[in-house]
Amino acid sequence: MGVFDGRLGFGRKAALLVIDFICAYTTPGAPFYAPAVVEAVQKTVPLLERARQKGVPVIYTKVVYHPTGADGGLFVQKIPSLRALVDGEPLAEIVPELTPAPNDVVVVKQYASAFFGTSLAPMLASMGVDTVILTGCSTSGCIRASAVDGMQHGFRVIVPRECVADRHPQPHEANLFDIDSKYGDVVDVDAVYAYLDTL
């Protein structure tokens, strides 16, 4: 085994995280539109259904800013288009294909990581979760940041490669390589289905 070939695997209890699958990424003509995200959404639909059938907690994130952008700090200065993601903006809504169910929790965040400045880590801990399955976008941004923070908070990180996406294939593949090397396990989605079938 090489220096960066370790595997974490699934732990005792997993949660499925649906990170920023919002209409801004799937609406043609929108500033963040990425065709690969549309495909990843479609691959996540049956995974979400199976997870719910197996009683796996499902937690969503979405990005919403104050109209002034004050809560976005330097992030919205670096990426001004983010400031359009305010309450009531249709592009900020979760895609209809993955509509949250009544028991699902939606975490609002302002930065890349699903863990930074949110209640996600203590919520997962209180549920007894030790494994997070990351789906969503973008691979080089919010997925990578959430994978790094997930490990740093003590969670096993699993990333089904078909269920995450980026604007370009190069950062997508580079970040999957890096996540798999250092922060979690990047797997084919079939491995997640196999895990769910054991529950």
Fold and architecture overview:
The mean pLDDT is 96. Helix 2 (73-78) links the parallel strand 2 and strand 3 (105-109). The protein is an alpha/beta fold and 199 residues long. Strands 1, 2, 3, 4, 5, 6 and 7 form a 7-stranded parallel sheet that branches. Helix 4 packs parallel to helix 5 (169-182). The longest helix is centred in the first third of the chain and has 19 residues, at 35-53. The chain starts with 13 loop residues before the first strand and ends with a helix. The radius of gyration is 16 Å and the shape is globular. The protein has one domain (14-196): Rossmann fold. Helix content is 35%, strand content 17%. It has helices at residues 35-53, 73-78, 120-127, 139-152, 169-182, 189-196; strands spanning 14-19, 58-63, 105-109, 131-137, 156-160, 164-165, 185-187.
